[in-house]
Amino acid sequence: MNELRLRPLEGLPEIGPGDDLPGLLAAAAPPGPGVLVVAQKVVSKAEGRLVALSAVEPSPRARELAARADKDPRHVQVVLDASRSVLRVAPGVIICETHHGLICANAGVDMSNAPGDEVAVLLPVDPDASARRIRERLGPGRAVVISDTFGRPWREGLVDVAIGVAGLAPLRDYAGETDRRGRPLQVTVMARADQLAAAAGILMEKNAGRPAIWIEGVDTFGDGSLADLLRDPERDLFR
Amino acid sequence: MNELRLRPLEGLPEIGPGDDLPGLLAAAAPPGPGVLVVAQKVVSKAEGRLVALSAVEPSPRARELAARADKDPRHVQVVLDASRSVLRVAPGVIICETHHGLICANAGVDMSNAPGDEVAVLLPVDPDASARRIRERLGPGRAVVISDTFGRPWREGLVDVAIGVAGLAPLRDYAGETDRRGRPLQVTVMARADQLAAAAGILMEKNAGRPAIWIEGVDTFGDGSLADLLRDPERDLFR
After folding, report:
1. ipTM score for this prediction
2. What is the pLDDT of residues A26-48, one digit of tens each?
């Protein structure tokens, strides 16, 4: 790979429930090989992953967590419904493990940019399947990453990471390879799908309405799924 | 920003102690505005941040941690010397907070790709100062990020992050801005320097000998330092 080029897909309409997002993306994508990074929010909207807070009745646990986190109890109920477990609660933040196994704030349930002030946007039910549906329309030689914007322990600021993939191995494994001097490489596994998501995030700019970024110049190979990116809890030191 | 373009700097020699890395990078960089992402390892080598393990006498604590982590006690002594504190120890891994405040495996002390099998490569003493020295040679309108390859909790695989910056604000703050429909943005702070480091990491490829990547098309503004990227321990939920 000698050069990477990233461009936003132009001309996408505002996406809503029932829109044929894979078809819209395939029509807007340039020809040739490449990786399309798509922001989770438009995938979720197209898939109708919206919950009106007016229809949510918060449980006692949601009310208790909402008080500790200083959040709307109905929002917290939606977060709990999307979660396998709650790792941390503090003012302004609830860190959850989603049913997919993702660990992130509010189980990825977002209130911003939603169609209406009182609507929560949930993560796709199966982001790998969402990516595969888009990839089917893009055709061969083209890969898809669904990205979302996560915080991290220890570091300020957010970066985009992959929450679903199709048509590329999310990890790039250098095991058995050597450096230029022939010594075995010790850093053996790069999170290729997360690198691509982070790179695309630079162009997504939160106020620009650019939910899909086309990346040319990446060697893609193999296939895989979100599960490849999730550390076995038994091997995790920070739960 | 409508397009991002990333290219490796070509023609750099193998870097060793005392080499004028800022001068070599400035000579190899294309003209015009851009961000240069430089891998920590070449910065450390040029700055002579090398420790021969044969000269290291491990302390009892280093021996004890080395046994728990299944590592060379001399390597662990170098790691301890570079650390403010140790967060976790497990087979194969010691997670430390460095004197800079970075939290990462082995305090960033690396044995791979070092000149000789028994030499540890330490992080730069002051990566922001290293970045500033490079930026002075690049000239105005050009920014520098020093990157290193870190693991993360919860997710498999490594990504590059910024450990030093010059000529750009490492955080991009959207507070007070609105989305296309005029609603306030809730995701307000992106880790711009980490996004750039991750993007450059795609082209650095661990076996290609490409320690410097030139990125064009990024709006850079402001200035800042590594400290902007480090979360206040009091506000951190995962120490």
Report:
1. 0.94
2. 999 999 999 999 999 999 999 99
pTM (two decimals): 0.95
The Cα–Cα gap between B107 and B100 comes to: 10
Beta bridge partners of A105: A95
Structural domain count of chain B? 2
Q: What is the mean pLDDT of residues A137-143?
A: 95
Cβ of B7 and A8 within 8 Å? no
How is B118-160 classified by DSSP, letter by letter? TEEEPPPS-HHHHHHHHHHHH-TTEEEEEEEEE--SSB-SBEE
Position A227, amino acid = A
If asked whether residues B131 and B31 sit together in one domain, one would say: yes
For residue A219, what are its two tokens?
């060697």
Domain identity same for B113 and B92: yes
Instruction: Please indicate, yes or no, whether residues A113 and A199 belong to a single structural domain of this protein.
Output: no
- Tally A–B CB contacts below 8 A: 225
Interface touch A183/B4, C-beta < 8 Å: no
Nearest CA in chain A to B184: A112
B86 and B96 housed in the same domain: yes
Q: Which of B156, B165, B183 to mutate to test the interface with A (most CBs of A within 10 A)?
A: B156
Q: How far is B196 from chain A (nearest CA, A)?
A: 7
Q: Which residues of B touch A156 (CB under 8 A)?
A: 171, 189, 191, 228-231
Residue range A149-203, pLDDT digits in tens? 999 999 999 999 999 999 999 999 887 777 666 666 666 799 999 999 999 999 9
Nearest CA of chain B to the CA of A88: how many Å? 7
The answer on A225 and A166 residing in a single domain is yes
Q: Do the domain assignments include residue A239?
A: no
